[in-house]
Design goal:
It is built from 18 helices and 12 strands. The protein has 472 residues and is an alpha+beta fold. The chain has 3 domains: 304 residues, Alpha Horseshoe (Serine Threonine Protein Phosphatase 5, Tetratricopeptide repeat); 63 residues, OB fold (Dihydrolipoamide Acetyltransferase, E2P) (Beta Barrel), CATH 2.40.50; 66 residues, OB fold (Dihydrolipoamide Acetyltransferase, E2P), CATH 2.40.50.140. It has a 5-stranded antiparallel β-sheet with strand order 5-4-3-6-7, covered by helices on one side. Strands 8-9-10-12-11 form a 5-stranded mixed β-barrel. The longest helix has 23 residues. It starts with a helix and ends with a strand. InterPro entries: DUF7017, S1CSD-TOTE-2, TPR-like_helical_dom_sf. This is TOTE conflict systems S1/CSD-like domain-containing protein.
Length: 472
């Protein structure tokens, strides 16, 4: 019995015979060094069996329960023989199949714990392009996200699964160290914080996700859950109502309508609560789904029979204001100075150092368009190298080492469109737009406000942004 025979049976589509031969060959291999080709043949036959079940599930021909019954024995068998195949393509491809059904296969996290995340091939770390030309994340990244998602789903597990959950938490934290801006990793970490009763960090992790996915119902639903847990019931209502209006399909709302109905009823908004219950019941009845106990209990309440169902009013403005407030509460603010205003592109650039700064689009920050260069402000951001999320005026009018006042002799040569302010602290470059009204010659006792910046040629120096009248 050889690997070649097993591969030949596999090519002929005789998968049951190939698997039987692989098992007998593996059992008779003895204690010596493993035959890698035999193990590969064995693994690929198991892969065929698992893939057949996964494909049938994705096509709707196999229920999650039937899928579990099909793939669990095969993956347990794989885990008993595949350790020598780590970093082999056969190993990676079986993990790929497991990751595809991670959301419905209850044993995925335990399997992933055995497999680990460090034995993918070199190619598994490379993104790839599908048949439509869309660039997809690499296999390892997708597997790690599947681990994190499964960890969240089992966050409260006890007994044998607890060790796998603890490992999954470590995987998530490690992944965030390498990709701190990954929206899915931050979403999963937010969910874990909530499961641990840590509402403040749960909110912090979710805010940047919400800013990127502001039209997604699921992220507003999670924020509502966090705020309810934090005791902010009014804000939670805003989030949940907003989520119901953003959802494109009723199935997106799941338990959300039930949660919203309960909160509305606690606020004595019975007509609006009744509408949520009506929608939740109709969806389940149309699809033959069971009625969960909490939904049944709300529908049995005395107020429900007397209510006149109506939808809540839109809360778009309130939701945006809430998001802005939460962002500000979780931001770091950096002092900076408006370096220039680009009216053609409708943006202002705020310098925070000689080579650093933030772009503030006027469409998002309309009030900043009226502030001239040299105005000191503070820019709010979630990450040091992230985009501007907020800004506020500053009480300061200079920033040592970045924006300072200078006094000296204003010198403009006849053949130059620019000028220099020459003083004890060094020369300050006066660009042509400011120098245009200066007569040729040297003019003592002049003042300017200047910003220290590095130009495109790598030269760092002071550039005037505002000239003032000579001292009396």
């Amino acid at each position: 019995m050889s690997a070649r025979e097993i591969f030949a049976l596999r090519r002929q589509g005789r998968h049951a015979e190939a698997l039987d031969l692989a098992r007998r060959a593996h059992a008779g291999a003895g204690e010596g060094a493993p035959d890698i080709w035999l193990l590969r043949a064995y693994a690929w036959v198991l892969y065929d069996r698992i893939r057949q079940a996964v494909d049938a599930h994705e096509a709707g021909r196999l229920s999650p329960t039937a899928l579990h019954a099909e793939i669990s024995p095969a993956l347990r068998e794989f885990s008993r023989m595949a350790d020598p195949l780590r970093r082999d393509s056969a190993f990676s491809q079986v993990l790929r199949l497991a990751g595809k059904v991670s959301g419905v296969w209850p044993d995925f996290l335990a399997f992933a714990h055995w497999a680990g995340i460090d034995d993918f091939t070199w190619d598994d770390h490379k993104p790839f392009v599908d048949e439509t030309g869309r660039k997809l994340d690499d296999l390892r990244t997708r597997f790690v996200r599947a681990v994190c998602r499964a960890t969240v789903a089992k966050a409260g597990a006890e007994g044998p699964e607890a060790a796998s959950v603890a490992w999954g938490r470590e995987v998530l934290d490690r992944a965030l160290e390498g990709a701190p801006d990954d929206q899915w990793l931050n979403y999963y970490r937010s969910r874990l914080h909530l499961a641990d009763g840590e509402t403040a960090p749960a909110s912090r992790r979710l805010i940047p996700v919400l800013r990127r996915q502001g039209r997604a119902a699921w992220v507003w639903g999670l924020l509502g859950e966090i705020l309810e847990e934090a005791g902010a019931r009014g804000d939670a209502l805003i989030c949940l109502i907003h989520a119901t209006r953003l959802a494109r399909e009723e199935q997106e709302l799941g338990q959300l309508r039930i949660r919203l109905a309960r909160l509305l009823a606690l606020d004595s908004r019975f007509d609006e609560a009744a509408e949520q219950l009506r929608q939740a019941m109709r969806y389940r009845e149309q699809h033959g789904y069971r009625i969960p106990p909490d939904l049944a209990a709300l529908c049995a309440a005395n107020w429900f029979a007397a209510a006149v169902p109506r939808a809540p009013a839109p809360v778009d403005a309130e939701a945006e204001a809430l998001l802005r407030g939460l962002e500000r509460a979780n931001l770091g603010y950096s002092p900076g100075v408006i370096d220039h205003v680009n009216t053609a592109k409708a943006l202002s650039y705020v310098a925070t150092g000689a080579t650093s700064g933030f772009v503030l689009p006027h469409g998002r920050f309309p009030a900043i368009r009226t502030l001239p260069p040299g105005t000191v402000v503070e820019v709010g951001h979630a990450a040091a190298d992230g985009p501007a999320i907020d800004w506020r005026p500053s009480a300061a009018d200079t920033l040592p080492g970045l924006c300072e006042r200078f006094t000296g002799v204003l010198d403009r040569q006849e053949d130059q469109a620019f000028a220099f302010l020459r003083g004890p602290g060094g020369d300050v470059f006066v660009p042509p737009d400011l120098a245009a009204g200066i007569a040729v010659g040297s003019w003592p006792g002049r003042n300017c406000l200047a910003i220290r910046r590095t130009d495109k040629k790598g030269r760092t120096g002071w550039r005037a942004v505002r000239l003032s009248e000579p001292d009396a």
